[in-house]
Design a protein that fits this description.
With 198 residues, the protein is an alpha/beta fold. It has one domain: Alpha-Beta Barrel (TIM Barrel). 39% of the residues lie in helices and 16% in strands. An eight-stranded parallel β-sheet has the order 1-2-3-4-5-6-7-8. Strand 5, helix 4 and strand 6 form a beta-alpha-beta unit. The longest helix is centred in the N-terminal third of the chain and has 20 residues. The radius of gyration is 16 Å and the shape is globular. The two termini are 17 Å apart.
C-alpha cells in the first residue's frame, strides 16, 4: 500500500509508482478540504487510466481515502479510519480499513469487521518521530490477535524489511517515504512487489 503525502513526494513519484504496478493507494492528505481532496483523487484515477492504456492490469490499484467517510461514499471508494476515529454507524463502503497500535485498538477493529488493518509504527519512522517503534515481536502478537483480518505493517518499512514483516504473519506493507522520496520510485515499487511475492 502506498500512503500519499504530497509534501514529502518527489515530482512524478506517484505517477512512476502507479506505472510500476502499485496495487493499493491510500490518499492521506489531512490538510486538504474535501473539494481539494476529491480533485487529488481524480488526478490519481487519471494516472491509473494512463497506466492501464500502457498495458498495465485493467483493474488498477485499489483506492481509499483517509478519514473522510462522506467523501468516500460520494466517490464510491474505500475508507481508511485512523485509530482515534469514531466507530461508524454503518459501513457502506467497498473497502473499510483502520489503523491500530495496541491490543485494544485491534479488538475494536475486529468488532467493526474491517477488511484490513494497518499496524505500527513498526520501526523508527521519519513521519512519526515521537512514536516509539513496536518492534517485530509486538507486531507479530497484534497480527495474531487480528486474525483473520489481513494486517499491513507501517513505519520505517524498506524493501529489505519486508521478509521480516511476512515472517511475523503480516499480509503486506504500507509505505510513504520509501517510495515517494526514492531516487527511482518505479524501481523501488517493483522491488517491494518482488519482496512481497517471495
Amino acid at each position: 500500500m502506498l500512503v500519499t503525502d504530497r509534501q514529502r513526494s518527489r515530482p512524478g513519484a506517484m505517477r512512476a509508482s502507479i506505472a510500476a504496478g502499485v496495487p493499493f493507494i491510500q490518499v492521506r492528505e489531512k490538510d486538504l478540504v474535501d473539494t481539494e481532496l476529491a480533485a487529488a483523487i481524480a488526478c490519481i484515477a487519471k494516472l491509473t487510466e494512463a497506466s492501464e492504456s500502457n498495458g498495465k492490469p485493467a483493474s488498477g490499484p485499489l483506492l481509499c481515502v483517509n478519514g473522510r467517510p462522506e467523501l468516500a461514499r460520494r466517490l464510491e471508494i474505500g475508507l481508511h479510519l485512523p485509530a482515534d476515529f469514531a466507530t461508524l454507524g454503518s459501513r457502506d463502503f467497498p473497502l473499510l480499513g483502520r489503523s491500530a497500535h495496541d491490543d485494544d485498538e485491534v479488538e475494536r477493529a475486529r468488532s467493526e469487521a474491517v477488511d484490513y488493518l494497518i499496524v505500527g509504527t513498526l520501526f523508527s519512522s521519519a513521519s512519526k518521530p515521537g512514536r516509539a517503534p513496536l518492534g517485530l515481536h509486538a507486531f507479530a502478537e497484534l497480527v495474531r490477535r487480528a486474525e483473520p483480518i489481513p494486517v499491513f505493517a507501517i513505519g520505517g518499512i524498506t524493501p529489505d524489511r519486508v521478509a521480516a514483516v511476512l515472517a511475523c504473519g503480516g499480509y503486506g506493507v504500507a509505505v510513504t517515504g520509501a517510495i515517494l522520496q526514492a531516487d527511482d520510485p518505479a524501481a523501488t515499487t517493483q522491488t517491494f512487489l518482488e519482496e512481497l511475492q517471495t
